[in-house]
Design goal:
8 helices, 315 residues, 29% helix, seven-stranded mixed β-sheet, five-stranded parallel β-sheet, Rossmann fold, alpha/beta, 2 domains, binds ribose-5-phosphate
């Protein structure tokens, strides 16, 4: 492990600390400062020549600040002659705009892929991308991890029966199907229409939820509207307890208060994005993906396959 150096930006130092602990390496020395006008300035505080460098930085809120800090760190490390730089992005932001679904809109997922590569990333390591096809926006290797094993372990400890896995939208069917398979549970889908980023309408529920305990699975909770509205409809359709397992807890605006007042019994998220103090709630549980990332980093460094980490996922 002598040649590994793991640096963290300011987005999620707690997760970076867990990863370093699992890897038994000290966090790399990097100083991130701001000029008086807010421009990002970083200084790498140790020699990285010939080193296998990993930079941990989810591009969660403040999204632009965290993305820019990552880009500046990559540039500094490349100019400091690191032999390989992996951008470790536990949450890959700007992913929701991944196609031209209306005239005159950008494809920001591709734009971000381009700028990460230009800044100096040689590889990407990420988790539960909003759409798997985003992998193809990169012309550098990308390793895509899944949080499913961590969620399955959590829910198996709770021991639930009469289970149905629900996707809160049609786009999430593939993800929900993998979970249903792992839980040996039924599958249902909520047909939702998004009127604006904050407002959605539930049109139909496809599948049987009456008398069942529900686990809703999704990649992102942002405003919370999708799962809160879905939970209302699921209750009306006769669901018993409602749990949500969502990889990336963006929880913007009043999402936490919406979840607190909702029909959802418990929301489980990962630590891909830090849950800041004022967003903590009895209903929200956080599970760690630190050891998953540490294992993936180790395997990338030693050039071992990382597909064993996906065993049983069945995608
Ligand atoms: C949509 O395609 C995503 O998978 C999530 O369902 C969505 O981003 C959640 O957003 P919100 O919490 O704002 O409804």
């Amino acid at each position: 492990m002598k040649k590994i150096v793991v640096f963290s930006g300011q987005a999620n130092p707690a997760l970076a600390g867990n990863i370093c602990k699992s890897l038994k390496v000290a966090p790399g020395n990097i100083n991130s400062m701001r000029f008086s006008d807010g421009e990002v300035r970083v200084e790498v505080g140790e020699n990285v020549r010939g080193k296998d460098v990993f930079v941990i930085q989810p591009t969660c809120p403040p999204v632009n600040e965290n993305l820019m800090e990552l880009l500046v760190m990559l540039d500094a490390l490349r100019r400091a002659s690191a032999s390989r730089i992996t951008a470790v992005m536990p949450y890959f932001g700007y992913a929701r705009q991944d196609r031209k679904d209306q005239p005159r809109v950008p494809i920001t997922a591709k734009l971000v892929a381009n700028i990460l590569t230009s800044a100096g990333a040689d590889r990407i390591l990420t988790l539960d991308l909003h759409a798997g096809q985003i992998q193809g926006f990169f012309d550098i290797p990308l390793d895509h991890l899944y949080a499913i094993n961590a969620f399955v372990a959590y829910f198996k400890r709770i021991k639930m029966n009469d289970l149905v896995v629900v996707s809160p939208d049609v786009g999430g069917i593939k993800m929900a199907r993998s979970y249903a398979k792992r839980f040996h549970a039924g599958l249902a889908i909520v047909d939702k229409r998004r009127n604006s980023p904050e407002s959605i309408d539930v049109m139909h529920i496809l599948g049987e939820v009456k008398g069942k305990n529900v686990i809703m699975v999704d990649d992102i909770i942002a405003t919370g509207s999708s799962i809160v509205e879905a939970a209302k409809a699921l209750k009306r359709a006769g669901a018993k307890k409602i749990f949500a397992a969502i990889t990336h807890g963006i929880l913007s605006g009043n999402a936490v208060s919406k979840v607190n007042k909702s029909e959802i019994d418990s929301l489980v998220i990962t630590d891909s994005i830090p849950l800041v103090k004022d967003k903590r709630s009895k209903k929200i549980k956080v599970i760690s993906v630190g050891s998953l990332f540490a294992e993936a980093i180790k395997r990338i460094h030693f050039e071992k396959s990382i597909s064993v980490l996906f065993d049983g996922i069945g995608r």
